[in-house]
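step: validate -> pass
step: tokenize input -> pass
step: predict -> running
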Amino acid sequence: MSAIDTPDPDEYLLGDRPRPRRVTKIERATRRQEAIALRRGGVPVDAIAQRMKVHPSTVYAWIQDAIRNLPREEAEELRALELDRLDAIFRGHFAAAISGDVRSADTCLKVMERRARLLNLDAAPTAGLEQVGNLLDRLVLGTEED
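step: predict -> pass
step: emit ->
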């Protein structure tokens, strides 16, 4: 075939579209490992997402998945590292928050929320509190259970 007969790869017939390049399992795993390494290095999730051109929730999912698949000792080590970072942020803002600085107070609350999620404190069973509430209602209000 001559150069005239060879179609230009940049030109497509009407209705033809180039097929999107499929990401291989190895490439996906490599990207996840890179994201996890960046996070361990202290890079914020939003920065990792921007760098890797994915949504921050994708990076969070990668990190959570990696934590679930870590050996227990390594997961505890990573959790301790994150708690140390949260403590450092909290210490840096606590005095200003107590003094009335609204931004520092907001930062402290966000750190506290993150700590609670990391330690799974919000998932604590509440059945005991419900029973105490019912008992107090009966004692204070004199109501009887049905």
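step: describe -> The first helix runs from residue 25 to 40.
step: cleanup -> pass
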